[in-house]
């Protein structure tokens, strides 16, 4: 094929909710069409590698089913009958309904709801500005990071760590509770570099033999939710065998005789009985990281999507404190850099507009909120209107039965601003078409690394699509809000954020496309002390002090949480009625529910399946490829059984998230997942459910 004459390559940034935040080189063909998308070779973290789903982004951005016009529902809710309307008509209706609802029920009856469909801060977080200006209900963000962040902060005091590129300088890379081959491919680039260049060993800790574990030198396949026990067993061996860095423990941590005595009770035999791992594997792992203190612990989100996830994160994080890994380049631990940016985002979020005392509703509990649960509503008024951007709760939220029941309420006025007719948009009264990242300006912080990147508008918006920023501002104007942002462009919002934050001016770096915010290496490894007042890493967590936002609320009695690093068995238990433990680990070619609309991803994943061991299947009368039903007290879901031996007995994995309607019976996997908030401050335990499984009854 000839190269089109006007093809050019433009630099951009992947906007999706993935710690890699890849720098992209995008082929722009005629000023409106894209060709191939490649990972930028000159970006040290991206290093020329991106995932398959974004490489074929042309499928998504030029998808024939992209939303191009505002729509009003004409049939019954969810029936799929729409009339195209103009933007003016759409705004008039939204304003009239919002004003009427606020007058009758108070402004807290309106709940603007968003998550991270785009990770660009201007287009992701701007809805908060409108929320604050009008006194609408706040959103308490729990769905993703609710358990992992407190767990990490409990040890270090700050959500940051050494530059992840340093994995390439490690002797051992421990990939714990993340499946980067699916979820953040660049981790593999740097881990494999360490293996090639210095013979580093790769350890993977997961609950099934993932594509990442396939590449490991040591794969630890434990029972779901038992990582705390593994960590304690490892620390026991380190202390027992003289592999602890006693000097580091004394100078940099709160380690003392009480903690040592506690760990000396947690033998490898004890850990083996809980985790299901052979004692030999626990010992081997301990020796590997003990004898190679230049070990990098890359701690993921996945293993914290358990009811005891925050304590498991803390326990895993304690291992490098015992080995003194933090002292060495290529050593230490990393979860996210989200605590390190020191950005003043006030022009975007408008905190000065906020009314004190407005209630904050837990986004993971959207089903309970919409079905009128008084506790979920914080004993306030019912939610009568939703304004949704950047998220698809009717596929991704836990407790789908109640979530869908709530969205079906005839008296609920729902506006969804989307790129596609998602399962959430299908339940709306008004659907608004949204731009994609190549059609607007925004900046992105890379949680898995140190860079801030700028993605410029490169293409015109298709049809009548408008950006999140634009729509929020227009709505604010029509609702009588005044704010400096209303006179600005999205690019100016980014520039103003950097100005307020004391960053170099956007003009000075936008041509290059990034700003490196790497901090001095010793600081990232807490050489002069951890971020607690006494500068000591904590084996004895003060959970209250991990409450980094005032609206975070305790969901358990603080006294119930273990006082010392520990394994805390509060997960959903297998019972005679529900003998299997189910996890809903992310699929490779979907990103949450995004890309479920693209042909390439649909082809890769086909119909929703559940991995089951052949021996478990035989005991349940299930054959490979057969239709099966999974159930618990929350509901039932239909899947196809797929035999797989890379699991412990009694564990099932359903890679997610297929749309509800991709399942026979129309109920998706999150029907089985609870929305009860996980300690200390809430979060959804997506990989922590107990279920039964049986052959489906064919009708
Ligand atoms: N392809 C793809 N990429 C994605 C996403 C996606 O859906 N698909 N989602 C994006 C988002 S929003 C996020 S937050 C990140 C999350 O990315 P990750 O940090 O990788 O987290 P998860 O993908 O939830 O889970 C990772 C692994 O944890 C395992 N796991 C579950 N329970 C346990 C446990 O108790 N112990 C241990 N050791 N492992 C356990 C799961 O089986 C899974 O293999 O990925 C992002 N990238
Ligand atoms: N079973 C199961 N469920 C899970 C998880 C799991 O591991 N298993 N993971 C959970 C996690 S970690 C997360 S973070 C949540 C994420 O759940 P969501 O935040 O809902 O993630 P996405 O499905 O990617 O939905 C983002 C939506 O935003 C839209 N979007 C993208 N860019 C824009 C934009 O610029 N403007 C507008 N208006 N819309 C845009 C996309 O089209 C997409 O429909 O899912 C959770 N649900
Ligand atoms: S790996 Fe993550 S950041 Fe990189 S292109 Fe894929 S989804 Fe985007
Ligand atoms: Mo997430």
From TrEMBL:
Matching Gene3D superfamilies: 2.40.40.20, 3.40.50.740, ADC-like domains, Dimethylsulfoxide Reductase, domain 2, Formate dehydrogenase/DMSO reductase
Keyword Iron-sulfur in annotation: yes
Domain 4Fe-4S Mo/W bis-MGD-type stretches: 7-65
Keywords noted in UniProt: Iron, Iron-sulfur, Metal-binding
Alphabetical list of InterPro entries matching this protein: Asp_de-COase-like_dom_sf, MoPterin_dinucl-bd_dom, Mopterin_OxRdtase, Mopterin_OxRdtase_4Fe-4S_dom, Prok_Mopterin_Oxidored
A GO molecular-function annotation: oxidoreductase activity
Pfam family of the protein (one): Molydop_binding
Superkingdom in the source lineage: Bacteria
PANTHER family: OXIDOREDUCTASE YYAE-RELATED, TRIMETHYLAMINE-N-OXIDE REDUCTASE
Similarity-based family: Belongs to the prokaryotic molybdopterin-containing oxidoreductase family.
The protein, known as: Molybdopterin oxidoreductase family protein
